[in-house]
Write a structure and sequence with these properties.
This protein is α+β, with helices and mostly antiparallel strands. It has 13 helices and 21 strands. Strands 8-9-10-1-11-19-12 form a seven-stranded mixed beta sheet, sandwiched between helices. Strand 4 and strand 5 form a beta hairpin. The radius of gyration is 23 Å and the shape is globular.
Length: 510
Amino acid sequence: MSLLSGCGVLSSDKSDSEQKLAVGTTSTPSTLDPAGAWDGSWELYRNVFQTLVSYPNGSATPEPDAAEKCVFADSSNQVYTCTLRSGLTFSDGTKLDAAAVKYSIDRILAIDATGGPAGLLTSLDKVETNGDRKITFRLNKPDATFPFVLATPAMSLVSPAGYPKGKLRQGNTLTGSGPYNLQAYSPDSAAELVKNVKYKGFAERKNDAVTIRYFKDSDAMVTALKTGAIDATFRGLTAEQIVDLEGQPKEEELQVVEAVGAEIRYLVFNPKDRAARNPAVRQAIAQVVDRGALVDKVYKGTAEPLYSMVPSGVAGHTTSFFDAYGEPSVPKAQDILEEAGITEPVPLTIWFTSDRYGSSTAKEFAELKRQLDASGLFRITLKNRPWNSFQTGYQKGEFPVFGRGWAPDFPDPDNFVAPFVGEKNAVGTPYDTPEITASLLPQSRRESDRAAVSKQFERAQEILLKDVRLLPLWQGKLYVAASDDIAGTERALDPQTIMQVWQLHRKTSW
């Protein structure tokens, strides 16, 4: 398999006897330590770490991975028990036992990293062990979504010998027990994965090694695909590139696989900012933004307008913003502002990340600026930063308004509401919503049948609509582009929209 120079650990041999592949993405890890990331770093984690439960092919609910069995041991969904597979070890040779599981989960809470996943564990009271293989999670309240939380790569199991208890691990190495070992890592460049021969889990690896190439620019990634420097791409393709790849003549030997997606894009308003904290300003922006024009001009059929934080295809989805605001209207937006005593154009700076979601992001925010400026009601300044400094900025509350993307931690409406509310949340701006946090979410989490929680999430979206602290923009489709000789693309994405690279392999000739 051809790889770019600099990835010389892996051979460029295309023989069928040893499957070595290269995958491109714009989703660069922010850290190699799972206790520090609630972001696209999970793409790597899924392939090098294990979680107690995960998503085998065709499963939309968590099933055992490092665990042999996991169940709620009570009728109130407050005691969750797991029994580990026997004989598990980490790549450093140490045992993966119940004590290591407890250490891994306790460590996330102890570090409580800014931008980290501790916020996913708000329902956890304590972790107990019984012997080497049994773990009991005691929850402080009923939470039927807890197995989904354990299935996120944030809950990756780490070796106590390799990860300090009170701080994040530094450096360019990691110690896991997943389908692959990380053989080499160059930040912002590449991660070289080789099959973990000691792995015990559900993944059936159909290749021997994978190099994940990290690109800052979508054009460079597509060029690498077309020239054979990589075998497949995921995340970061622009709409124009998808249309172009879908229209390639057969002799180009490329394929594009489309899947139903639950990824969303939205704006976040920071209540610390003088303008953004004014409900009238937020409502006026909601009245002006033309989602249809945005997705037509920028995303060309690869996205759909989104009118609630819970996307289409997920239980509890509504069209609350369309129902409330209807078609974009400058006169209605002007009325909203004038009723609040605002008669001059509102100056506002909107931030976005320059290298996280692909090259279409800059075009998207240019279109948003065009729409808002054209209304005569706003004077918009656009600014951007690379992901790591962008993330630091919004967590410190530096940005008045900023754009974020969200790929679900797990396929449940809870995960499109709970992460964005409360004192500590995924967007770094405290959002006090007592009805949601103290009533609606607890009610829904008592319900094991997740198809029966629509009423609570419909009400939650009414509250989000009234506040307009979050403004949904669009919902994307998922695309994997690959060389025509690569199989497994249609099975490579799990319900969290994370690529399981072990599914990819070169078609064999007979």
